[in-house]
Structure prediction request, 521 residues.
Amino acid sequence: MTDEEVPVLIVGGSLVGLTTAMLLGHHGVPSLAVERHAGTAIHPRAGHFQLRTMELLRQLGLEERVRAKSLETYSATGGIIAVESLAGRELATYVKELNEGVEGFSPTLRVFINQDVLEPLLQDRALELGATVRTRTNAIAIDQDADGVTVTLRDLDSGDESEVRARYVVAADGNRSPMRTRLGIGMRGYGELSRSITIYFRADCADLLRDRNQGVFYVHNPELRGFFRLDRTGGNGFLVINTVGEDVTQDSAVDVQAGLTEERALGFLRTAIGTDMPMEVVDIAPWRAEANCAERLQAGRVFLAGDAAHVVPPNGGFGGNTGVQDAHNLAWKLAAVVNGDAGPGLLDTYETERLPLCELTVRQAYTRYATRVVPERGTEDAEPPVPDIELEIGLVMRSPVILSEDRDNGMLHLPPPALDGRPGTRAPHVWLADDRSTLDLFGSGFVVLRPAGPDVDDWAPPGATAHVVDAEPFADTYGLAAGGATLVRPDGVVAWRACGPAGRDEIARALATARALNPEL
Ligand SMILES: Cc1cc2nc3c(=O)[nH]c(=O)nc-3n(C[C@H](O)[C@H](O)[C@H](O)COP(=O)(O)OP(=O)(O)OC[C@H]3O[C@@H](n4cnc5c(N)ncnc54)[C@H](O)[C@@H]3O)c2cc1C
Prediction:
């Protein structure tokens, strides 16, 4: 006999677990997120949040709160440069300004915000939307059958154990993912790249920043390689160190953790700052830079999301953002199945759609690590870099619930100008007459959009909301001629479109396919 029943249990109450809980609540499904720590993240870790993540937070009413919090810590216009040390020479500019080149493609902007500041906002919103978050609770066993999953929880204060029965489980339990291990799912990729450390510190670097209020400073000198993130005062921040010593081809160079003491850490900090000054080490976190992806994202009724599904080095800022996209893809599908609005086959499309994109992201994060941090260790196995924006808003998904067009060329990513509303891509942003974006129409259910025209009504089949859009570039941007229609999923992905006139039955059939209600799915 189990002690408790929930539609969805989430193991892990950090960035991805909380995002999943928030999204499930938004779709009307209560969930229980269990977290073994006493609260949300204590370390800043993720800092660079991409357009697609911000678009999602906008749909959940969090965009302004997140932006205001970001500005307390970072400049809105920081970039990413490489220096010898903060006091030394500038070596390269990787990103001139965080939002350079994104204008017109999105109603929102990228931000720098620390994960320990973001997570409480996500948690508050998840709770507002009906989720339960239970801290100091460890998920210690899992067992599933045809009807559900039983998870054993241990209260870390009392030691008491209890059983929860859930229809589905999301394992958002991080890169070591005990759930993934229990399910026997392996990882594949580039393996361990370095035994890195992060030094959290206080030191007054304001004068060294001068007018360079950057989001990230890569540091490259004969003693170490890594990067700084400093708040806008220049007084607080962290230094990541990926390698030590001049000859980074030696394996000892990528083991920064070996022989580490606080004194040695202070020495690294002094070198990276480039001048002596009073400095205080607040904490030192050891971690492994890896670039690996899970072999599968699903085992029966259990789904892997976030670092449990893919681990990447921080270069490029993909780790947390990719996990947020996992949650975005998965949550509406779980909600639709739990609410009886979709066939169970819809859940299988999570892996079909996400796995190739997660693998792409792992390869691209590896490319950024290999070329920016340790080019001397060889870059032959690094694929050519894909521009960040294509990985943020230009990804292409394929699955049986996406009705691809004949001209699909199999590409996994496209530049924004080529994003013409084709099925499997994020429905493009167009400003509407009331200053909302087309993206503001998405997020809650299926949406049918049609360009305004003389013979167009706003008809949509049951289960979808219809909008006739008369904004000037809409028809062109969405690749629709008069009478055409596009069907957009709750995660803002185009499921189907008819470029030319589309009738009632055609739209209804597309919707049934997108909800996996066709008998063959
Ligand atoms: C230095 C650094 C910089 C980074 N910068 C960026 C960046 O700029 N942008 C970006 O997108 N990403 C960045 N990342 C990566 C980002 O921090 C991670 O991808 C992100 O934290 C993953 O979130 P998650 O929720 O999947 O996993 P985690 O944050 O690891 O959370 C997993 C949670 O599950 C809990 N848990 C595990 N097992 C159990 C269990 N059995 N029962 C209960 N709870 C359990 C853990 O306690 C933990 O809280 C960075 C990482 C580092 C180290």
Notes: The mean pLDDT is 94.
